[in-house]
Amino acid sequence: MANLVIDIGNSQTKYAVFNGTKILEAGKLEQSGLVQINRLIDTYHITHSIISSVGVEIGNLEELLKERTKYLRFSTDIKTGIINKYKSPKTLGLDRLAGVIAAKKLYPKQNCLVIDAGTCITYDAIDHRGIYEGGSISPGLNMRLQAMHKFTGRLPEVEFSDYSDWQGYDTATAMLSGVFNGCTEELRGMIEIYRTKYPGLIVILCGGDSIFFDSRLKNSIFADTLKTEPNLVLIGLNEVIENND
């Protein structure tokens, strides 16, 4: 039995094929994705599938998966394997939920903090009992750069590029320094806050900008408990299939 999991985010659609907990193939879906999905089903003899979507129309994808597999659409209503105490579960981002489900799977009976560094940076903790209560959301790197340009009269539009100096020497590098160093210190501060509540905290980085932050935090006091897992959301979706089979 193989599972196909699909995560449709704000800017891209990712997929992975699992055999148990092993990833057989992972990548990005192009355009409609129908040709790719048919190939994946035929190649790996996929029997189960799931989609997590931020709201994009997925009718054609769903119809194909319903026809050829046992299909689930991920939502906060289905069995997740965690105790969800979020006060407005209907508004909880599905990527945030999948992240903590995966954290529980990868690090059972441990306190975990998932930091998803994408369009926004989200912080979500799940404790050693599998209880999830909530987290925090802040603007991501590109969003901060774009906001300074859009909401001021003279700051330029600056393209994202890695900038490691502690300060800037012109307007563009000053903006990069402020965003990159500010975000990095935000992560350090948030990790410290969560560590005071959750002893032995495991910190898991995921999302498109996770490598950027990993390189800046790996030499810090958090290095021993810092993990980077780019496929965390996909792992969580695969676990949902296992919980609902």
Describe the structure.
With 245 residues, the protein is α/β, with parallel strands linked by helices. The chain folds into 2 domains: 2-73, Nucleotidyltransferase, domain 5, CATH 3.30.420; 83-235, 2-Layer Sandwich (Nucleotidyltransferase, domain 5). The chain is 38% helix and 27% strand. It is built from 7 helices and 11 strands. It has a 6-stranded mixed beta sheet with strand order 6-9-8-7-10-11, with helices on both faces. The chain has a 5-stranded mixed beta sheet with strand order 3-2-1-4-5, with helices on both faces. The chain starts with a strand and ends with a helix. The relative contact order is 0.16. The model has no long low-confidence stretch (mean pLDDT 92).
